[in-house]
Design a protein that fits this description.
With 157 residues, this protein is α+β, with helices and mostly antiparallel strands. It folds into 2 domains: 1-32, no CATH class; 34-150, SoxY domain (Immunoglobulin-like, Sandwich). It has 4 helices and 9 strands.
């Protein structure tokens, strides 16, 4: 039985299986084409390009966005824990952007109405950089930033 499953996955049946599972709602929608983002969002190489791709323009600074469980110094840039909480009413999404990464947008999370806007994830960082939490709330964009020092790079550095 295991040999048959491996053979199906090797011959491309894995993609078909994933598509069927996504259509049936058995795997997270993040693995499918999510309506809230596009490939261009994640292809941006600069902060300005990422903000433009996300439609953010010039976001306002906000004290209602907070980093938690996020180190000041990351010993390994390959695994940097990031936690963000938004106290802004009607928070729609939280994006994590890293200035000096090859691709600025590291993560994007959408929140359905009534969901607590808190995320905890791990990202890769190439080098010491400012990390930005960009929050879309009530159709407007807000940002807070934190410098994280990286002692060992995680993006091939």
């Amino acid at each position: 039985m295991n040999a048959d499953r491996r053979q199906v996955l090797k011959t491309g049946g894995g993609a078909t299986l994933l598509a069927l599972l996504a259509a049936a709602g058995w795997i997270p929608s993040a693995w499918a084409d999510a309506p809230g983002w596009s490939k261009a969002d994640f292809d941006a190489h600069t902060m300005d390009d990422a903000l433009k791709a996300l439609g953010a323009g010039k976001p306002a600074a906000s004290g209602d966005i907070a980093f938690f469980s996020t180190p000041d110094i990351a010993e390994n840039g390959g695994v940097v824990p990031i936690g963000v909480n938004s106290k802004l009413p009607n928070t729609e999404s939280i994006a994590i952007l890293v200035d000096k990464n090859p691709f600025t947008l590291a993560a994007l999370f959408d929140f359905p109405a009534g969901t607590e806007p808190t995320i905890s994830t791990r990202i890769k960082m190439r080098e010491t950089s400012n990390v930005h939490a960009l929050v879309k709330a009530g159709g407007k964009y807000f940002v807070t930033s934190k410098e994280i020092k990286v002692t060992l790079g995680g993006c091939g550095g």
